[in-house]
Amino acid sequence: MTQAKASAILKPYFQLLYDSVVDGYKSFIQSMGSNAIVYDSTTRANMAHNHIFHDLAGRSVSDPRLRCFTVEGLKLFKLDDLFLFKVKKLSNDLKSSNIKSRRNDRFLRQQKLFNEMEPMTHLQLGYVVDYVGAAITDVHIVCPKNENQNDWTINLNKELGQHYLPDLFDNIVVDDTQPDYGLPELTFVVGDDENKSDEQLIQAV
């Protein structure tokens, strides 16, 4: 899908997606306090993604167009069976770091992930942090082309007129009362042998 067409469809959700990233990351910082910077970048990103996804799940409860779910521990969300999203931390050149796997390669190459899902445009709801990881500097929607290239990006800061994000260590308040939204757990059984066809099974719990 072209950037212009995707942007037109996604525009009503720019603010929601932006707020989910910023507020979810802030929730992560608040829950960890200054200890957040002790963890390595990979661990910090994984924990931050859990908070961002949880925030997004809460916002999507009342919107039938958005659906959040997990697949073998992978947190995904989709919009209208048109876009399949991952939350990703991005480098300054808007590239994501991914563990090498068939599933990640398929996602980045815009190849269908699972037979049970309709083909969708794969997007990353990505964010860039400052050098110590204390604050988000930019939020982007990224359409990957392959492992090394992006097809296009949408800068949500620019689209929404957000030019500055404050240090998230300011006014830290610990809040551990967030509700459980009861997201469905989807289990996909996928063969690991590349010489075999994928056998896939979905079970909603």
Question: How would you summarize the topology of this molecule?
Answer:
Elements: H1 3-10, H2 14-32, H3 41-60, E1 66-71, E2 74-79, E3 83-89, H4 102-108, E4 121-129, E5 136-144, E6 150-155, H5 156-160, E7 185-186
Parallel strand pairs: 1-7, 3-4
Antiparallel strand pairs: 1-2, 2-3, 4-5, 5-6
Helix pairs in contact: 2-3
Describe this structure in words.
- This protein is of the alpha/beta class and 205 residues long.
- The chain has one domain.
- Helices cover 29% and strands 22% of the residues.
- The chain is built from 5 helices and 7 strands.
- The chain has helices at residues 3-10, 14-32, 41-60, 102-108, 156-160, and strands spanning 66-71, 74-79, 83-89, 121-129, 136-144, 150-155, 185-186.
- It has a 7-stranded mixed sheet with strand order 6-5-4-3-2-1-7.
- It is globular.
- It starts with a helix and ends in a 19-residue tail after the last strand.
- Residues 168-176 and 187-205 have low confidence and may be disordered.
| Count of beta strands | 7
Sequence stretches where pLDDT stays below 50 over 5 or more residues:
168-176, 187-205
Strand count, sense and closure of the main sheet? 7 strands, mixed
Mean pLDDT: 79
Indicate the proportion of strand residues. 15-25%
Strand order of the largest sheet: 6-5-4-3-2-1-7
Bin the helical content. Answer: 25-40%
Number of domains: 1
Shape: globular
Rg over CA atoms, rounded to whole Å, is 17 Å
| End-to-end C-alpha gap | 33 Å
Q: Specify the oligomeric state.
A: single chain
Structural class: alpha/beta
Order of helices and strands: HHHEEEHEEEHE
Q: How many alpha or pi helices?
A: 5
